[in-house]
From TrEMBL:
Organism: Micromonospora ureilytica
Protein name as it appears in the record: GntR family transcriptional regulator
Gene Ontology molecular functions: DNA binding; DNA-binding transcription factor activity; pyridoxal phosphate binding
DNA damage as UniProt keyword: no
Short name of any one Pfam family annotated for the protein: GntR
Domain of life where this protein originates: Bacteria
């Protein structure tokens, strides 16, 4: 159970619930219940929270208590609310849902779903040979306990060599291997951020980073990214650092998720200098650094400009290789790595040795694997761009020079409604509000180009069909939602 939402808070989240598409044919209680399901569908209302009492919500919405009572009853009937007399009502999901690896709650019968909520590729063909080679290497580790809190030496050296090749001299004792990039972020936050500490993030940004910050009860301020190719406004970003003086800033300078922007070298240097001047530590997420396209060469790593151990870089295997291989890392000063290892004991002891050995072999073949990925992604990106231009020409998209996602500006504030409707036609979307705070970014939608080109074209065709249906005055239909947990 994660807490309680008050009547005025839920009213603010519901917004113009009575003006949704198809509202004219829906009774008030059905529209209210549907809007609550919609909040669950786009992740703005978590599972397990206690909703306000009927009278409290009725007063906040300025409607009759009878309407709220009927809405709650419908939510109980559809499996989205559990109530106990004298104790209250809690949000939940119907019994035929499960947690998927994406972090979404999904129906069990979703095999035909075109999932555009996940910005990750299927495994490369080289994974099998890497796994076989790893099993041959494993015996030499079997005589030990298998705990390597900072990672096995072969993998730390391989990651350090990759940083050195990018122009940032790095030794193995500056690398800590983690169970994925998200785990790396969590450990850094545990070390560097006290509960309630202040953090600056980009807007939009990676949703799971926001979830990690929420877990630390961080006080979050945002720097809004421009929709065009420039992305960061240097004076505004540096001004935000000077004015708010946050304890941490979490940035994604390489093919930013979700916008695809690439931060120029000049701004990287200025950000590091400003962070040092105001006492801010930088967490730099490099998840997409290998996935450049069109001959684009990313600027030097942000840590290149660091002379005071202000920059902690995190990365991993999920995006260029495979999300099922839970290998990530932290690059920091050697003393910081040792402190992270001490913090890790309270979370887990070490990453699996076999997975680390697989990663060693994949990194040894990185040049060929990454080159294939770049070609594959460029083809899929162009197919997605072509389909959007053909079927949804009113949407504005800046062509990214790397990464795996497009950030589309829609022709209206319909992102969440579109995502709910898309479930009806077998397409899962990640609506704009997932990537920001307080339900903003309804005019935007993240579209990854990680599926095969034919699937992307098909998905856009289905989205285009239901996009125009949203403008029709029909009764709103609700599917059991894919809810963000």
């Amino acid at each position: 159970m994660t807490g309680q939402v008050r009547g005025v808070q839920l009213a603010r989240l519901l917004g113009q619930w009575h003006a949704l598409p198809g509202r004219r044919r829906s009774p008030d209680y059905a529209a209210l219940a549907g809007s609550v399901r919609g909040l669950l569908a786009d992740g703005r209302l978590p599972l397990g929270v206690r909703l306000p009492a009927e009278r409290e919500l009725a007063e906040a919405l300025r409607i009759s208590r009878t309407t709220v009572t009927a809405a709650y009853r419908q939510l109980r009937e559809t499996g989205h609310l559990a109530s106990r007399r004298g104790a209250g009502s809690w949000t939940m999901l119907p019994g035929n849902h499960r947690v998927a690896s994406t972090g979404l709650w999904t129906p069990l019968d979703d095999r035909e779903m075109l999932d555009l909520g996940v910005a990750a590729l299927a495994a490369p063909p080289q994974l099998l040979s890497a796994a076989r080679a790893a099993t041959e290497d494993l015996p030499r580790y079997l005589t030990g306990a298998g705990y390597h809190p900072t990672g096995i030496i072969e993998l730390r050296e391989a990651v350090a060599d990759a940083y050195t090749a990018r122009g940032l001299p790095t030794s193995a004792d500056q690398i800590m291997v983690t169970s994925g990039t998200q785990h790396a972020l969590d450990l850094v936050l545990r070390l560097a951020l006290a509960p309630g500490g202040s953090v600056l993030v980009e807007s939009p940004t990676y949703p799971n980073a926001l979830a990690a910050l929420a877990g630390r009860r961080a006080r979050i301020t945002t720097h809004g990214l421009a929709a065009d190719a420039g992305g960061w406004e240097p004076d505004l970003l540096l001004g935000s650092l000077r004015q708010t003086r946050p304890k941490l800033a979490y940035l994604i300078p390489e093919f930013q998720n979700p916008t695809g922007h690439l931060m120029p070298a000049s701004l990287r240097e200025r950000v590091v200098a400003t962070a040092h001047a105001v006492g801010t530590d930088l967490i730099i997420d490099e998840s997409f650094v290998d996935l450049s396209m069109d001959g684009t060469e990313p600027p030097p790593p942000v840590a290149t400009y660091d002379r005071h151990s202000r920059v902690i870089s995190i990365g991993g295997m999920s995006k260029p290789y495979w999300g099922g291989l839970r290998i990530g890392w932290v690059r920091a000063s050697a003393p910081q790595v040792q402190r992270l290892a001490a913090v890790r004991v309270g979370v887990d002891m070490a990453s699996p040795v076999l997975d680390q050995l697989v990663a060693v072999h994949l990194l040894a073949d990185a040049e060929a694997i990454v080159a294939d990925r770049r070609v594959q992604l460029a083809v899929q990106r162009d197919a997605l761009l072509g389909a959007l231009a053909d079927r949804l020409p009113e949407w504005r998209v800046t062509v990214p020079r790397g990464g795996v996602t497009l950030w589309a500006e829609l022709d209206g504030p319909i992102s969440s409604a579109l995502a709910r409707a898309a479930e009806e036609v077998g397409v899962r979307l990640a609506p704009g509000p997932r990537f920001g705070l307080d339900g903003t970014l309804e005019r935007f939608l993240r579209l990854p180009f990680t599926l095969p080109a034919a699937d992307l074209v098909e998905a856009v065709g289905r989205i285009a069909a239901i996009r125009y249906d949203l403008d029709r005055a029909g009764r709103q239909r609700w599917r059991e939602p894919a809810v963000i947990a």
